[in-house]
Design brief:
- This protein is mostly beta strands and 196 residues long.
- Helices cover 13% and strands 59% of the residues.
- It has 1 helix and 10 strands; from the N terminus they run αββββββββββ.
- About 11% of the residues have low confidence.
- Keywords: Signal.
Length: 196
């Protein structure tokens, strides 16, 4: 009886290690990519403008569960409180953990640097997000994130929905919606991604 229990425990540990190793191997490039996208930024506060501009993203993983990422949007969208955006840089660090070969949980801490091209001062803010990333199959990946930041309007909630279609191991297309609640800004991004 003890021998059967020991065999069962060893088998369970080996199976778990194999699943985690397979998850790491299968998802080796989930957090390593470069992306260029076209972003349509839409504000609902009249008379603020809507703007189409370029967005660039990058991410690299290091250690086992940590990744660093950055995003730059070059728009000049008119925002609430008299701000006119002159570039928006976001960078930060995140932690991710695969709970299955196809699904990872993530938490990130970011810094926003919003340049202003009028007399308003440049803005900086912090943002914290949690999310889940899931591969539906070999081609399709979905990510959902929610967070809090304090850019321009004070405490605000952010939601991000992202879908990636992979043509092959390295090349893919992306569609992303970012919604800032109190800032009342939605960004719709269509991009091309290179994963490495």
């Amino acid at each position: 009886m003890k021998s059967n229990i020991a065999t069962l425990l060893v088998s369970s540990v080996l199976a778990t290690a194999t699943i985690n190793a397979q998850a790491d191997a299968d998802n080796a490039n989930q957090y390593r990519y470069l992306e260029a996208a076209v972003a349509y930024q839409s504000t609902d506060w009249g008379p603020f403008s809507e703007e189409t501009n370029a967005t660039f993203l990058a991410s690299i993983d290091f250690l086992k569960y940590v990744h660093a990422h950055a995003r730059y949007n070059n728009g000049d969208t008119h925002l609430p409180k008299g701000y006119q955006q002159d570039g928006w840089l976001t960078y930060g660090i995140g932690a991710h953990y695969f709970i299955s070969p196809n699904t990872s949980l993530l938490v990130t801490a970011d810094r926003h640097e919003l340049g202003s091209n009028n007399k308003k001062p440049d803005e900086t803010a912090r943002e914290y997000r949690v999310g889940i990333r899931h591969d539906l199959n070999a081609q399709w990946r979905l990510t959902l994130e929610a967070g809090e930041h304090d850019l321009i309007v004070g405490s605000d909630t952010t939601f991000i929905f992202e879908t990636i279609y992979s043509y092959n191991e390295h090349l893919g297309g992306s569609f992303r919606v970012r919604d800032y609640d109190e800032l009342d800004l939605s960004s719709y991004e269509l991009g091309f991604r290179y994963s490495f």
